[in-house]
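[Solved] Which block belongs to which protein?

Original post:
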Amino acid sequence: LRVDRSWLVSPAGSPDYLEQVLRICAREKVRALAPGTEPELLVLSRNRDALERAGVALLANDHALVEACLDKWTMHQLFVSRGVRTPAAALPEQADQFIREHGFPFLVKARSGSGSRHLSIARNREDYDFFARRLASLGISFILTEYV
């Protein structure tokens, strides 16, 4: 990817991230901004008004939808409520019923995050129990989804 200029800014979670982005947008006369990572998407969508006041269009969904979709269980429920076909999913407390209804294999994955971090395929009950214990020991909330 070739660009005319590049800028190094603080991580999206830093208190001065938005100020840095706004300063660069003003200096470079940026008219539209497309977030590249989930942390940036979260901060920028939360601050859409500040960007719009600066004349910058944010190329992203509204913040409420962004937040909903960053939680895989909430996103699943949103899809189901809107009639969007989606693989079956369950919370850990529903595991026994999910296994009875859908069997193995299925995915065990963190409710948040990306890049397939904390994603495993449970091929049998022993796999599931191992993955569930491991994620719980790390304090990671997870869901079960059909393997398609």
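(Second protein starts here: sequence line, then its structure tokens.)
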Amino acid sequence: GILPAPLATFLEPASLPALRDRIVWLPEPGPWRYLADPFGVRRGDTTHVFVEAYDYRTRHAVIEHHAFDSALRWQGKDTALTQPVHLSYPFLVEHAGETFMMPESCRADEVALYRAHDFPHGWQKETVLLRNIRAADATPVFHDGRWWLFFTMVGERGRDRRELHVAYADALTGPWRLHPQTPALVDQSGARPGGTPFVDATGALVLPVQDCRGTYGAAARFLRFSVLNPQEIRCAHLDARVTGDLLSPKLVDGCHTLSACGDLALFDAKRVTRSLGRYAIDLQRQLRRRFGR
């Protein structure tokens, strides 16, 4: 969804139900598919939104691009980036007159930076920032004179739902150094990155994170860094907790990503449904894998 309000609006979750009628929703993705992880940029009168587009039939996701006009009327969609590995969390960075994307590609064991050679298309890999690492939801931000990268690590027993890792660099393209304090936080209630960092009124950096207690992406929270430098990290959660039911009476099972696009806030909310059709889909996928069709 797109809410015509600043991202900081979500710091007051009690105000969100009154804003529901202002939300513009992306079109339904169709059966056995979902959209998640929205990030956007504006170009003239057009708002470009990039999302993870997942298909349960293939258990694979690509990055999809949706365009909206100045009145936030949907103009169409296309596939922006596809790879042999699953892609998600298409974090966008505008830097030095260029537009970059840092999609999650943890199954490739890397954090890669892509540049748009013909925006909103023509995405080509610019460089690999971190190698031989299964990082998820890598979130870069330039703050206090250097680049910071927040991410979680994919591993056994739901490691990616409870650990916040941090790296820093003098330039976006690196070299990147892991912070000596990493993981900076181990907490299932809000460690995995979940959106666009921003600076609060005190000058402290605030990072949206995912509350994964009970289920993955159950809610969004905010992590405030009172100290963030190459030697030390101190952070604490703010009181705000954003759940899906605050945004939609139907999508009550979670809120997973909060991002900023100028004075617009982008988010996702979810509902979980169960269907016997899942068994037919699993069988079809197994047959295709076995017989190569």
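Accepted answer:
You had them paired correctly. Confirming on the second one: DSSP finds one helix and 21 strands in the chain.
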